[in-house]
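Backbone shape codes
____________________
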Amino acid sequence: MKKLLYLSLLTTLLLMGCSEDFLERVPESSVTSGNFYQTEAQFEQAMVGAYAAVRDAKGSIAAWCMGEMRSDNTHLEFNNTNRGPAYIEREYTDFFLDDVTSTLVADKYNRCYVGIARANSIIDYLPSAGLSQQVADRLTGQARFLRALFYFDLVRYFGGVPLYLKAVSGAGDAYLPRSSVDEVYKVIVDDLKDAIAKLPAPAFPQTGRATQAAAKMLLADVYLTQKNFALAETELKGITPMGFSLLPDYASVFSLSNKNSRESLFEIQYQQGNQGQNSNFLYPFLPLASDVSKITGITSQNRQGGGWNVPTFEMIGTYEPGDKRLEASIGIAEGTGVVGDMAIETLKSPVGYVKPAGKRAYPYIKKYLHAHSLEQNTDDNFPVYRYSDVLLGLAEALNEQNKGAEALTYLNPVRVRAGLAPSTQTSQAALRDLIAHERRVEFAFENKRWLDLVRTGKAIEVMNKNGEYIKAFHAGESYLPGTSYAVTQNRLLFPIPNREILIGKLQQNPGY
């Protein structure tokens, strides 16, 4: 990866562009890794850059295309007026037709490595900085948590990848071969064990920084993926006494007033305004329309930017009657007009919805819809881990160890909060299906569904069936290639970007 040769030396320069105070003291031309990583303030500034990389890697277009739209939860509104390469790449990610030249897939891959490079620089330079042990531990713990977070995405989406564990200082460091999946997971586990030992316990109100609880949750997620359920149980039970809880109302979890609440273990931080820290992922999920003000509350056109990550009616139909999460998560824009330019007339609830004759109906993701004053400039954070992850993770880990009765004690609070009756099901197979369903609706549109399908071995079966549904629902429309949704084992991983294959002489994933 050629760009890694420069990242460790230039990341600091990139970060300094927003720091007038720093520029008053040291010209940009003299900033180097040798004279920057010296004070606590400088390391804190570098840490801000490492957290910003989480936005780029896990809050980007690639994140929801590859994590949610790849799954059976959502589809897309075909835009026949814009056939640009970026649009086609998003469509092909949904259709399972992506290939080695996809810039969308490359974006995910490269942004994870940018975050890794920033974390590596912090980890490498801290020991010689002479900071107090307490400060060094706090910074090291956060950096190793972030590095593990990025590698966990890489190994799940791409398989074994090159392991860069030191700041790149020369060409000899920049071209590493692919490590095995097991080797990558070993690094992730080692990083997280160290992070857990060094990070502070959570304190409320939270700041958005990683805590011991976030590291334990990430490690438990790794163990669930590896099917090491006993170790997952241990880590998750270590979180339960730390002061987290479910908020009483599901919809309020995503409220702007509840950022970093007692239900949040880790979320991507955003702030609306003119500082380049705002979120905007609401808008791609809205209809292709000349005016979406009935949804957003402000005059705004979305004729080219919307139509993505559209909840399917099959997804809507999976919610149990009375499940409050349906109306909190999904809305329906009803109106008229041609595909690509909908005239929105009214907003409807998805509960019991039946489309009137002559109308168009567009389901949209509602949980990130909150008041804002500027188009494409919203204040919503994006959840990575919530306390319901702990509860449903425990339910899964216990059920897989034939502890069904105990599993219900963690599953049922999630169901009851949603307005559903507690389950009494203790059959392992039936409870496994119920937990999978709960995860689908509890974490809908949080970029977890595709990864859940892969790790539970359901992706091929579910997505081929979903392909049949999509093709039947859109019968008569010509935008779906006949080869779409032909999901095989090879499609459970994305391709290593072609540029990395060429410059790093890496072996490509099978089938690409």
Notes: Residues 1-30 have pLDDT under 50 and may be disordered. The first strand starts at residue 74 and ends at 76.
